[in-house]
Amino acid sequence: MISRIDLRGNTLPEGGALRDLLPRAEFDVEAALEKVRPICEDVHHRGTAALIEYAEKFDGVKLDRVRVLAEALKEALAELDPQVRAALEESVRRARIVHREQRRDAHTTQVVPGGTVTEKWVPVERVGLYAPGGRSVYPSSVIMNVVPAQEAGVTSIALASPPQKEFGGLPHPTILAACALLGIDEVYAAGGAQAVAMFAYGTSGEDGCAPANMVTGPGNIWVAAAKRYFTGRIGIDTEAGPTEIAVLADDTADPVHVAADLISQAEHDPLAAAVLVTDSLALAEAVEKELEPQVAATKHIEDRIRPALAGRQSAIVLVDSLEDGLKVVDAYGAEHLEIQTADAAAVADRVRNAGAIFVGPWAPVSLGDYCAGSNHVLPTGGCACHSSGLSVQSFLRGIHIVDYTREALAEVTHHVVTLAEAEDLPAHGAALKARFEWKVPTE
């Protein structure tokens, strides 16, 4: 069901050479880019009419309007299963606790007497959030995008999610209920690249959507390609690829837990990656044996889980030691990394590259997906080596405010002039000289 990669007995290569030995899903955003380009430009030119046409073409629904009426949001919340509502409310509560602590305050540094630099943090003005609605429906992703934006102080938040034929062209009612629960009343029945284009360009008319400064939220390859297409015009969080879990484990790990956690990510998508890195052959064999009965007892077996576990993106990676295991997981840079070893907290502290780290047997990835308080919008495809997950900081811009007195400027003018002339930009220096009767200082 899952393959093995045996790295024992040899010195592990460094950097990219090690990454090339590890499993990874094929996810060609560049190829998808050419297919989304005409869709994005069609939305640019035809606006809402194009969105309605693509809803019929891709989602099989004929829409009268794209924006969801307020009554539909209220109705979805009123009809939400009370237990689901309670779970969503607890997820929101915990997410707010964590994300509220992330907000930075302005800080002023006195560089010299009379010269200060203040860094203030300003939220983006308008954000478009995307909530997937394909194989699965993710009200949890609504929470993970909305809460940090709200805690950052974003004042204008809109959300798009694909229209569902089963629900009369509206997004899934649980998505609508989550929006209502969070106070988001601007919601659009739009999916895929066309939804990103709607946020990037805006659309006009009674049903129109104002353009956004930033678009965040996970989606399929078409959403990722559209984000790449609009990079520079709008801010984005990340080009989300297929979800990933890596588990670094030794012989203290419970194979039942490890197998269950690998399956939990495999059920997302046939391209989902499930990777176990271990120095214990006994654990590897026990996990392999445990996968079969656990897979047989769950849902989504043939369309998601088996293809995901059997795919080239998933494997059990055998290493000689925990030290080598740490090198492997750092090279892999997993979206989700579980540490199931002796002294797991100390091992986790040594990890450099991961979207989020889950420590020990009682912090599975599923907890982080819903109710840990952490954010589950995380870098994929190895991007954890340079990028972070979604947070309050994602929605804030740092602005430097420079405030110097006449005396403080005069004291440093000769250095500025010297550097400007060294770069052959004499007008830069002249901008300071013009403020003073300035002469080149003599020894």
Notes on the structure:
It is globular and about 85 Å long. It contains 17 helices and 14 strands. The longest helix is centred in the N-terminal third of the chain and has 19 residues, at 82-100. Strand 4 (126-130), helix 6 (139-152) and strand 5 (156-161) form a beta-alpha-beta unit. By secondary structure, the chain is α/β, with parallel strands linked by helices.
Explain the layout of strands and helices.
Layout: E1 4-6, H1 15-19, H2 29-46, H3 48-59, H4 70-78, H5 82-100, E2 107-112, E3 115-123, E4 126-130, H6 139-152, E5 156-161, H7 173-182, E6 187-189, H8 192-201, E7 214-216, H9 221-230, E8 235-236, E9 244-249, H10 255-266, E10 273-278, H11 281-296, H12 301-310, E11 315-318, H13 322-332, E12 336-340, H14 344-349, E13 356-359, H15 365-370, E14 396-404, H16 406-422, H17 426-433
Parallel strand pairs: 1-11, 4-5, 4-7, 5-6, 7-8, 9-10, 9-12, 10-11, 12-13
Antiparallel strand pairs: 2-3, 3-14
Could you name the key traits of this structure?
443 residues; alpha/beta; six-stranded parallel β-sheet; 17 helices; 44% helix; globular
State the helix count: 17
* Proportion of residues in extended strands: 15-25%
Pick out the low-confidence regions.
none
Assembly of the depicted chains: single chain
Q: Sketch the major β-sheet.
A: 6 strands, parallel
How much helical structure, as a percent, in the residues? Answer: 40-55%
Radius of gyration computed on alpha carbons: 26 Å
| Strand elements, count | 14
Average pLDDT figure? 95
> Spatial order of the strands in the main sheet?
1-11-10-9-12-13
